[in-house]
# Entry
Amino acid sequence: MIKGIKIGIGLLIMTAIVFMAACKKNDIPPKPTPIPPVVGPTAYSWEDPLFFQQMIIPGDNPFTVEGIKLGRMLFYDVRLSGDDTQSCADCHFQENAFGDPNQFSTGIDGIEGNRQGMTLENLGYQFDYFWDARSETLEEQIIQPVINPIEMNALWSDVIEKIKADEEYMALFAIVYGTTFIDSNHVAKVMAQFLRTVVSSESKYDKWRKGEYFFTAEEAHGFDLFQKEGGDPELGQGGEWGADCFHCHPLAGMQFSDYLLHNNGLDSIFTDLGRGEVTGDPNDFGRFKTPSLRNVEVSAPYMHDGRFETLTEVIEHYNSGGHASSTIDPFMKYTQGGLQLSDQDKLDLIAFLKTLTDITFLADTSYSSPF
Ligand code: HEC
Ligand code: HEC
# Structure
């Protein structure tokens, strides 16, 4: 065996000598052509939590270990803003389910927006992003805050220059894409990879669903109300005096949102047209993306304009039936005197909503700042 290898090596050396001699004969200077070792990205296999639907992972942006690592670093990097003072995480706080405890977030130039920061959780199970669903993909969404004048107010060309000056970033980008010619799309893609891994699936509700937790009497009653039809059976078909939350915040898929756009009766006269702002269609006036109710306990203030500070105020809104308008959703009980929940019902509904808090997620260090 060893002899065989020795003979093999001997042959190789001899061939090399003959080859070199041949070169010398023709006087061709030996050209060094170093071939860099090809290091590809490390594949990352994703497993959907129990009872979740299949995550939507775009074919041109598969998970890679290095991509996720890069995305996480960039999410916390202030160099993505015009004056190096603000990162994505300055408006999206992990302890608030990556939402914003301020009613309106303030960009680098101190200009306040008119919409409440959204939570970033289970984004890979959603479609259409922003309160008015104006971005169809997460990759497309991520391009926006960087150039938004009332947010990070930067030029992508400047941001790319800053990233290119960072050797650690460039070494990782070279692994992920096999090139150092990167642009905003490469950056958005790796950030989308990271954000798709930001998944909440360990709440009391998840544990209950897996048979690992038992609801208290209050939580169980709140859950019952949540999934019962609202209203008086004599006035509306199927009425069960429930809270009627499940139509727009469904249990199927485990996200507590249909992620569609509804008008949940906040106003009769709209100051923010929501989806209508994007389409110009009067049928879309006042319609906004239904948010997930996961971690809702820690994501106050509520609604697209952060008008409610507490869950009690939110429940009072739904209990009232909401304000009539041309686009109010038929599931709102505005024509029937509201839901008519008792004080105990309201407390129990809130107790149920709190079972959606995922303390593991809120403190998970794989999502926290890597710096
Ligand atoms: C100045 C505060 C601010 C900064 C900085 C910021 N965001 Fe946001 N983010 C918001 C607000 C406000 C909204 C909702 C805006 C709207 O709907 O018009 C939002 C919405 C989002 C959404 C949509 C979520 C959904 O469910 O539809 C994503 C994703 C997101 N931001 C990611 C990011 C990323 C990534 C960065 C960094 C590149 C970032 N944000 C920087 C305030 C901010
Ligand atoms: C007609 C559909 C619909 C029904 C029914 C409905 N919701 Fe909503 N919910 C929405 C929409 C749409 C929003 C966002 C509205 C906005 O900001 O303009 C929302 C927002 C919320 C929010 C704020 C979340 C956040 O992050 O800001 C909470 C909490 C909430 N709903 C709880 C409930 C509860 C509890 C019920 C039952 C009593 C319920 N919803 C019934 C559609 C609905």
